[in-house]
Amino acid sequence: MKFGVMGTGQVGTTIGGKLQALGHDVVFGSRSLEGGKASRVGAETGIRVASHQEAAEHGEWIVNALPGEHAIASLTGCALDGKILVDIGNYEAAVDGPIAMPLGQALQAAFPAVRLVKTLNSVSAHLMVDPDSLGADHSVFLAGNDAAARAEVETLLRAFGWRSILDLGDLEACRAMEELVPMWMRLFGKFGDPNFNLLVVRQG
Amino acid sequence: MKFGVMGTGQVGTTIGGKLQALGHDVVFGSRSLEGGKASRVGAETGIRVASHQEAAEHGEWIVNALPGEHAIASLTGCALDGKILVDIGNYEAAVDGPIAMPLGQALQAAFPAVRLVKTLNSVSAHLMVDPDSLGADHSVFLAGNDAAARAEVETLLRAFGWRSILDLGDLEACRAMEELVPMWMRLFGKFGDPNFNLLVVRQG
């Protein structure tokens, strides 16, 4: 399948590399095509780096791995309608401040014809695409207003290796998911490494 | 030890009953001494229900199990200085709205001489005092600016049966802890029962 992965930071390149390894056809969308970063990312991943518009044009699915504060501006003018948008983004300000409107809901409101599915935003980047490397069960959440799109994203998560997948229903769950960010940061500070996650434990 | 437990809802009565079962001397603080609720709680628990001021006077330790929106007003005028205040509270508005200032930090600012320790606020009431009943490991968090107070509260949590206790450090961690409320609510809605919690999983 063809993917446009928006963002060439740690999350974007990790997801893009995994999608390519699974046999998908990936193009990165970046706002910094001039200078060293785009060519470095291209060289390191073997994946073409293009503008956000070109990457969106390429993708049957879109992945948002942009900083939350920049996502709407960067995606404006991109060919998103009717496509699944996997939103992995978080507001950087959510680390230690309130979220007025969760990013997933803000993106869905800005681009009403996209099939947005929020997922993976509370997971360390290396675990997003290799959950087994933690050596124990742990959980990932997903939410979206389109149940068929949620099911398709769940299939992708299973291809990444996920087993504990909690479908939380519609995008009202974005607050629950995005407000996990301060806990991730606090645990990262406590442990000094990103080799952790949360598991939802239910009475058997 | 003597405890003043503020709040006679599900959380307060559950904590008060457990403290009594452990041999502590408990008085509940309530704003509704007239009418049926105080006598019903007193009859059901065998614990005296008094005003917030009387319960605070009684307690060497104070437990805040009041709705977050009412906590500062209810605790104003109470004898808190120098005592450990175990804050289990959450803002009801935090279920689906932003937290401008976390309750734990707001209480510490309002009562600067209290030794506030935030804990248990993300856990179903029955699991707070009987974590083993879930049948698998799960986690509780704690935070406070006074490390000695955190250690004393950790000892109490162990007496409740907790083993996975994550000390997150100072009260800046209150946002991380209080922003777990929307996830608790969403999982409660998904599962239809409160028999669940989160476990922090770390690479071994």
Kindly report the name of the CATH homologous superfamily of chain A.
Answer: NAD(P)-binding Rossmann-like Domain
Which pair of chains has the greatest number of interface residues, and how are they split between the two chains? A-B, 40 and 41 residues
Helix content of chain A: 25-40%
Oligomer: homodimer
Shape of chain A: globular
Secondary structure tally: strands of chain A: 9
Mean pLDDT of chain A: 96
- Predict the CATH topology of chain A: Rossmann fold
What count of domains describes the coordinates of chain A?
A: 1
Biggest sheet of chain A: strands side by side, in what order? 3-2-1-4-5-6-7-8
Give the C-alpha Rg of chain A: 16 Å
How many separate helices of chain A? Answer: 9
User: Which structural class matches the secondary elements of chain A?
Assistant: alpha/beta
Corresponding CATH architecture of chain A = 3-Layer(aba) Sandwich
- The CATH class designation of chain A is Alpha Beta
Name the poorly predicted regions of chain A: none
Major sheet characteristics of chain A:
8 strands, mixed
Proportion in β-strands of chain A: 15-25%
Pfam families (chains A, B): F420_oxidored
Domain Pyrroline-5-carboxylate reductase catalytic N-terminal (chains A, B): 2-91
Protein name (chains A, B): NAD(P)-binding domain-containing protein
Keywords (chains A, B): Oxidoreductase
